[in-house]
Design goal:
Blueprint: E1 4-13, E2 16-26, E3 31-35, H1 42-49, E4 57-62, E5 65-66, H2 70-75, E6 76-79, H3 91-99, H4 105-118, H5 134-146, E7 152-156, H6 164-179, E8 183-187, H7 191-197, E9 200-205, E10 208-214, H8 215-218, E11 222-228, E12 240-241, E13 245-249, H9 255-264, E14 269-276, H10 279-292
Parallel strand pairs: 3-8, 3-9, 6-7, 7-8
Antiparallel strand pairs: 1-2, 1-4, 4-5, 9-10, 11-13, 11-14, 12-13
């Protein structure tokens, strides 16, 4: 069952088409990565799904309700990039303010404590929101969005500005929420983190989905990396120049055939290895293919 469904959603700003006919589904318990270059339409799409913007066309259903409706807001939490909170309130007070919308008394205090733990915010609970770094603001936005046991989370660059240890902790917390049935749509430039926790990926470019699929399917192809004694002047067809030599997608070919092609071009091969494609490889390939159309 889909918790969030979008069909042919579009939105323009004057002559600029920010989102052009995007369709997607989110089901309980999955983390979907939303990736692409700056200006691809990721933030606009998230704001449309959250009901913060009205679409020019298409339909959006949030647990069977219209995006932005009161019923939709009860089940969907949105953590925007660069969220703004009352500057004079502390982190704990910000979360307490939002918790009042869900419960009172001891229940409210329990919600705040859980949100502080979820966002790894205990150490700054008494700090004013105006004094937070970007990373802490993103964590506070995430904690606030998840308050009240939301079934859907839309996260815009929640992993930005975090040190590696905190990023790992938040990724683990996202995985824990998914394990409890929460559907997560995570927009991020941190492709390594998305590769680690997402089960499915949508790649956006110029407002359109240019590639999508399960992580397992997207990363199943092999890449041959070749270390050369000297930089290549004329790489063989289908090979890409890297900092250490060359690389090529093997596809249905063999390592032996690729190395023979290097020898035919008089390249001195020092070493080689085969690896599976990374999400970065897949994204760059998709953007190259889109630019070539």
């Amino acid at each position: 069952m889909s918790l969030l469904s979008a069909r042919d959603v579009s939105r323009s700003f004057g002559p600029v088409s920010a989102v052009a006919g995007v369709s997607l589904d989110l089901v309980p318990g999955e983390i979907v990565g939303l990736v692409g270059p700056n200006g691809a339409g990721k933030t606009t799409l998230l704001r449309l799904l959250a009901g913060r913007l009205l679409s020019d066309g298409g339909t959006i259903s949030v647990a069977g309700h219209d995006a932005g409706s009161r019923q939709a807001r009860r089940v969907l939490g949105f953590a925007p990039d660069g969220a703004v909170f009352p500057p004079t309130l502390s982190v704990r007070e910000v979360l307490d303010y939002y918790a009042r919308m869900h419960t009172v008394g001891a229940g409210r205090r329990a919600l705040v404590a859980a949100a502080l733990e979820l966002g790894a915010l205990d150490e700054v609970a008494g700090r004013r929101a105006a004094l937070l770094s970007r990373g802490y603001v993103q964590r506070l936005a995430f904690a606030q969005a998840a308050l009240g046991g939301r079934q859907i989370l839309l996260l815009d660059e929640t992993l930005a500005g975090l040190d590696p240890l905190v990023r790992r902790r938040l990724c683990d917390r996202l995985a824990g929420l998914a394990g409890m049935g929460v559907a997560v749509l995570l927009s991020s430039h941190d492709l390594a983190a998305v590769e680690r926790i997402a089960s499915r990926v949508l790649i956006l470019a110029r407002g359109r989905v240019v590639r999508e699929g399960s992580m397992a399917a997207l990363l199943r192809d092999r890449v041959l990396e070749i270390v050369l004694d000297a930089p290549p002047r004329d790489p063989p067809p289908g090979f890409r120049v890297t900092g250490f030599g060359l690389e090529t997608d093997l596809g249905g070919g063999t390592v032996e055939a690729a190395l023979a092609l290097c020898r035919a071009h008089r390249l001195a091969v020092r070493a080689s290895r085969v690896r599976l494609k990374s999400l970065e490889d897949v994204v760059l390939d998709a953007l190259d293919d889109d630019a070539a159309r």
